[in-house]
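Example for tutorial group B:
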């Protein structure tokens, strides 16, 4: 097979190259996501498998995974194995949002057996899907969390009154607490719900929509 590896660790790139070459594969390595994207442009020949890390230069955050998503958009049939120390939940969900054939996401710590790695590469090249159980667990946990479960009892009281359309001053009067305390609770609620900074009114509307959709039975 023709295998492309994107890995900024010289030792790991060399080790993987030697391993796969010894198995008879044709291996090309790249140390940055930019080099990878440039090499596999729209008119490039598609390799049998792309093996990529998540965190690569220049920022060492998620360049490798974003590059894989981009390349899958250019070459939908490109088999990709993400081999990483980390689970980048947002981009991992994006990667598996479409056709999952020929996709894999495996944590490096779990690849302790050479045969296991070779098997994963072969399965992905054949159109299979290989997902580390820890990756599944984290993606599902993120998918099912709403942020409401992190609210304190007092914050839930405040949120219920916000959902009724009450102003901060009206909430303060209803709960017999000071206006600064209400403002602090509202800020905490919006933060826990992961709502992006915006106008307070817009964030409050988004918070109310989530509350109405996911509130537990019995809460107003």
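The residue assignment follows.
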């Amino acid at each position: 097979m023709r295998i492309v590896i994107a890995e900024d660790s010289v030792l790991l790139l060399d080790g993987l190259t030697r391993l796969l070459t010894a198995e008879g594969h044709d291996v090309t390595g790249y140390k940055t996501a930019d080099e990878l994207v440039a090499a596999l442009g729209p008119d490039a020949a598609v390799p049998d498998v792309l093996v990529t890390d998540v965190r690569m230069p220049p920022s060492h955050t998620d360049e490798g995974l974003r590059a894989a998503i981009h390349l899958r958009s250019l070459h939908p049939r490109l088999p990709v194995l993400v081999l990483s120390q980390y689970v980048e939940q947002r981009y991992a969900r994006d990667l598996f949002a479409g056709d999952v054939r020929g996709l894999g996401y495996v944590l490096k710590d779990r690849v302790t057996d050479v045969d296991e790695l070779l098997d994963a590469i072969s399965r992905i090249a054949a159109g299979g899907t290989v997902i580390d159980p820890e990756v599944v667990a984290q993606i599902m946990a993120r998918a099912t969390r709403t942020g409401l479960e992190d609210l304190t009892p007092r914050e839930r009281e405040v949120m219920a009154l916000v959902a009724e359309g009450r102003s901060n001053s009206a909430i303060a009067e209803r709960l017999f607490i000071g206006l600064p305390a209400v403002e602090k609770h509202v800020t905490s609620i919006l933060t826990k719900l992961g709502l992006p900074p915006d106008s307070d009114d817009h964030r409050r509307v988004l918070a109310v929509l989530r509350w109405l959709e996911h509130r537990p039975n019995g809460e107003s």
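Residues 200-214 form the longest helix (15 residues). Compare this with the pattern of hydrophobic and polar residues in the output above.
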